[in-house]
Write a structure and sequence with these properties.
The chain has about 140 residues and is α/β, with parallel strands linked by helices. The protein contains four helices and five strands; from the N terminus they run E-H-E-H-E-H-E-H-E. Interacts with CDKN2A. Pfam families: Isochorismatase.
Length: about 140
């Protein structure tokens, strides 16, 4: 199997999407949670201004609660998930955008959900831009 050499390119609004991963009520106790959500909220505002698509997920919402209101995602319909990666629940959205080249990734549980999402996206040949100031973990 030939390997794909990952590369980073320019983030262009017409070929990019913003992923917001699991910024939910039960994660409020995480160190720097407010700052992470604040940066992600700014990313969301910019994406909306640039008319970029945005996808929002919630990990097991029955147990971890809803997305925190300060994210400003009121108009977005969160997609529930029960695995680490966002890709299985957003695959339809990815398939609907053949021009997609890059994903901006923000969210909670960097060592699990963010990492597996990034790896799955790279496997699909997409560029992944992890917004470091908008990601964190419980530990």
């Amino acid at each position: 199997m030939a390997s794909v050499r990952p590369c980073l390119g320019r983030v262009l609004p017409e070929s990019s999407i913003l992923f917001l991963c699991d910024m939910q009520e039960k994660f409020r106790h995480i160190t720097h949670f407010a700052e992470i959500v604040s940066v992600a909220a700014r990313m969301l505002k910019v994406a909306q201004l640039l008319e970029m698509p945005v996808v929002l997920t919630e990990q097991y919402p029955q147990g971890l609660g809803p997305t925190v209101p300060e994210l400003g995602a009121k108009g977005l319909q969160p997609l529930p998930k029960t695995c680490f990666s966002m890709v299985p629940v957003v695959q339809q959205e990815l398939d609907a955008q053949p021009h997609l080249r890059s994903v901006l990734l923000c969210g909670i549980e960097t060592h699990a959900c963010i990492q597996t999402t990034a790896l799955d996206l790279l496997d699909q040949g997409l560029q992944v831009h992890v917004v470091v100031d908008a990601c964190t973990s419980r530990r």
